[in-house]
Write a structure and sequence with these properties.
The chain is mainly α. Helices cover 76% and strands 0% of the residues. The protein has helices spanning 2-13, 24-37, 43-53, 57-84. Helix 2 (24-37) runs antiparallel to helix 3, helix 2 packs across helix 4 and helix 3 runs antiparallel to helix 4. The relative contact order is 0.13.
Amino acid sequence: MRHIQDYLSAHCFGDFYTRGAVDLQMRELITFCAICCLDGCEAKARAQANLRMGNSREMLIDAVTQCLPFIGFPRTLNAGSCIGE
């Protein structure tokens, strides 16, 4: 499975994370929202990454609230749990 890890690192971090148009703080916020939209189990880890990057819990809650009409209440509530943990 090492080749998959290498591909992931090269593709995501070597390409997307090196682009300069969006700073790392905003990238983490966008990634968190996208994962919440997909109801991803890694939302908790992404919430923690956002907090380490400097995004506040309030910002995460505001971002997820903005997504509410598009992702529905269950995914929004799941995201809120991830933010709260």
